[in-house]
Amino acid sequence: MVDTRPFLPVSSSDGSIPSERPANRRKPMKVQLSIFFGLLAVGLLAALLASNKGSDIVTENEHGSLDSSTTIKPEPLRPLSRGPAAGVSEKANLLFPKDNENTVAFPWNNSMLSWQRTSFHFQPEMNWMNDPNGKSHLFSFGPLFYKGWYHFFYQYNPLAAVYGKIVWGHAVSKDLIHWLHLPLAMVADQTYDTNGVWTGSATLLPDGKIVMLYTGSDTESVQVQNLAYPANHSDPLLINWVKYDANPVLVPPPGILSKDFRDPTTAWLTSEGKWRITIGSKINKTGIALVYDTKDFINYEKLDGYLRAVDGTGMWECVDFFPVSKTEEKGLDTSVNSLDVKHVMKVSLDDDRHDYYTIGTYHEKNVTFIPDDTELDVGIGLRYDYGVYYAAKTFYDQNKNRRVLWGWIGESDSEAADVQKGWASVQSIPRMILLDKKTDTHLLQWPVEEIDSLRLNSYEFNHVTVQAGSVVPLDIGAATQLDIMAEFEIDKEALEKATGSNVTFSCSSSGGAVHRGALGPFGLLVLADDRLSEQTPVYFYIAKGSDGNLKTFFCNDQSRSSEASDVNKEIYGSMVPVLKGENLSLRVLVDHSIIESFAQGGRTVITSRVYPTKAIYGAAKLFLFNNATEAGVGASLRIWQMNSAFIRPYPNLDDKSQ
Ligand code: DQQ
Question: What was the pLDDT predicted at 658?
Fold first, then answer.
């Protein structure tokens, strides 16, 4: 069983494109047509440009698709910087800085680009998407789970696959997995949001009415807060929204710059019965969370001080603030505050585009949040996800007594490739979030149980021995839509015998999965082709310090994920606490170009976007690997092939609405 081939990738030369498609992949005809016509249009444009220069011409093959042998001539990449120009953080992939203008685009063809589209993650039919919006809790009752439907709103550019003038997309679901697209909820049609209907949150009032607060970028690109509400509360689909006629309800307060005031949270109740919200901002380089109280969502009182402020963290976007139970395995309404809860504050750092969370105590009277450990303060400590994951938001789901987290997962290929494929970004699988009662320092994130309904046939592997320096193929067929549960046991003797060292290990800078230590790396090679010329290792690395203490790291190595050069190839990861008596455990969701991986029940999470050129369709395979020099590893796995979710337009909408 053991494969003795070298672990290092062999260079591959045949350049063939696998064409087998998994049988269970469902793609709405409209999407296929859109992709086809989008690519055709890009192809024709490229052909025009090429003929102007007298160089290569793009041709169609007999099936009408672009031929891989006649793809667009690689052009040097000159990405645009879109977010900052609009007054928010960078939205495009920052891979190609100005000093690297010679990076050449890979000649992506239709077959490769089509494969990248995900099958069970939420995506609009086409174009650009970013932050999840509008999720809320209901006062004492639940989230924007309204009259039997989960509502999902998102930042959307309906006109292009790049960040642009943003409006609110809207979709509904009965189970958080299968989605029906609805018409845009709000568009940029007022002076106070003409440059974008930006991020906001919903709150459900005790009388069952919903209020939505959102940031508008006005005619002068000043960030203001606006109020909106459903036109018809008896419509379970909440199709039409009305903007309050005296908007904006809040403008940047004195001392706050006009482009540093955005993303109001869901409101929570104070013991005096007022609603309280927080809004992200900064003063010089200090990130801050401003606090306002309101009785009616129209008039606001600005409270002194900040919920929290942390030097050097820069602008705080998409602040989220919610309680977690210290005693129970369930979620809590946002207004709950007692000795049995801790509070979590999450900020999205504009400067590095990562989401950081901190666990601590909320002091209602002082209007402050104090972290349990100031070394893990807001914006400098733990992250929700060590890969691509930003602008996340939670909501309390009263339907299942749980708190659910959504995050925006951007692309990490080039903007030119996004334009070519006609879409950009996906949303994470919604994750249930709990306090990790064993560590008390971490949260646990876990895919919502509804995702299990997509599981098809499964494969079990028990106690597979993976010797030091070996690769073991897992015979499961095509490996592009998977749910993998794995446990690893490392050889105890080797653990004890290994000599400690003072060398500091880090996933990102210690050489990735080819760096061999006595006790790792070991784990899975995901989206790998037979020759391992493309592979994404998802793995553990155990480092023994000179004091004999063990530290476990959880990493994703994208450096060999694709033969294309114009994609992100960083190595992601961080430390993961492993408590006495625990085995090392892993869950990995593979869905075409996205790999979401959860270590130790979700204590540390990494999301990668990878864009293989060969390890696609039937040629995508799964392997176990162990690149340690000393320790053997035993692995037990259960692996499910995953069905696709139904994500499509709401049928016959005209009969249902208005
Ligand atoms: N995205 C929105 C802003 C938010 C940013 C604009 C975070 O409201 O700060 O699309 O990605």
Answer: 45
